[in-house]
Amino acid sequence: MALDLNSLGREIGPITREYNWKDLVLYALGVGAGFSELEYCYEKDLKVVPSFAVASIINFDFLSTIAEITNVNILGVLHGEQKVVFHETIPVEGTLTTRGAVKEIFDKKDKGAVIIAEFDTFHSNGNKLYTNILTVFSRFDGNFGGADSPEKEKFEFPDRSPDYTVSHISSENQPLLYRLTGDVFQLHADPEFARSLGFEKPIMHGLCTHGFACRALVKSLIPGTPERIKTMDCRFSKPLYPGEPFKTLIFKVKPGKALWKTVHMETRDEVITNGVFEYHEPGL
Predict the structure, then answer these.
(1) Where does the pLDDT of residue 59 fall: very low under 50, low under 70, confident under 90, or very high at 90 and above?
(2) What is the DSSP track for 196-231?
(3) Residue 72: pLDDT above 90?
(4) Is it the case that residue 143 has pLDDT exceeding 80?
């Protein structure tokens, strides 16, 4: 099986889905919200956890569609990086229409291949709500003769204590709840399947941990006003088991911008890293 380089530029979608307050509340519960953040969990004066923007495309066919059209070896696929750019406030109901394409395929030789896809999502009111840039790492598809990816600028966190630290602990059953939002991959529910891939038991969805982090960022930097978010960017680094404690470390670097990472509280492993969170500052 070889990568299909003809997939470059091929349109993916459009895919449409209707949603309402129940979908938003289910997502919020799936990423750890509750009575302490009732604005995400109760239809009265409901607000949207911004990371729903990522789940709305990843959990509904787009990752599997990328794998299908590029002909990657699905056993080696990892969700590597995720950036979302917000254009408008996400309404609490309506129809979402998403379309996009594979933009780049890079050859990392013996390490694998990197596939970058970009998707725009529109609301039924006509507004473009957000753009997702998705990076997929495929461990078994390198050495196809393509160009390597450009060298990235080195990412460095400030050499100081974070401005905010938010501790989390997920439920032992968190993946079973989160998968109801659309990501039903058996790695997060089937113990036998998880062991076949080298895990002790089913692991957390990376995007579930991502949602916990998003809640922490909003609560720390733009409390009560998730609509002020501009971008959220990160790299997924290591898996996390449900029930294990973790924390999100947030470093303000200038008005309207913070760097962040999510760290296992016992092993100190970085679960999500290279995080950037940008937001609208009043008066700027």
Answers:
(1) low
(2) HTT-SS----HHHHHHHHHHHHHHHHSTT-GGGEEE
(3) no
(4) no
Domains of the chain: 9-140+161-279 (3.10.129.10)
Q: What are phi and psi of 38, to 5 degrees?
A: -65, -20
Q: How far is CA 260 from CA 72, 111, 158, 220, in A?
A: 31, 26, 10, 11
What are the CA-CA distances from residue 211 to residues 54, 78, 132, 283 (Å)? Answer: 9, 18, 15, 28
More confident residue, 283 or 262: 262
Crossing angle (nearest 10°) for helices 21-30 and 206-221: 100
Q: Is the pTM of this model over 0.90?
A: yes
Alpha helices in 93-201 (DSSP H): 174-178, 191-196
CA distances from 151 to 14, 106, 148, 235 (A): 32, 12, 9, 16
pLDDT digits (tens, 9 = 90+) for 206-248: 999 999 999 999 999 999 999 999 999 999 999 999 999 999 9
Q: What are the angstrom distances between the C-alpha of 138 and each of 74, 133, 141, 266?
A: 8, 16, 6, 29
Q: How far apart are CA 9 and CA 159, in angstroms?
A: 41
**Dist. CA 5–CA 143, nearest whole Å:** 13
The pLDDT score that the predictor gives to residue 154 is: 86
Alpha carbons 229 and 130: distance in angstroms, whole number: 11
> 123: which 2 tokens?
């609301």
- Is residue 14 reached through a cis peptide bond, with omega within 30 degrees of 0 on the bond before it? yes
Residue 211: alpha-carbon gap to chain centroid: 7
Q: Determine contact, residues 179/207, Cβ cutoff 8 Å.
A: no
Sign of the torsion formed by the C-alpha atoms of 166, 167, 171 and 172: positive
142 CB burial (10 A radius; 0-12, 13-18, 19+): buried
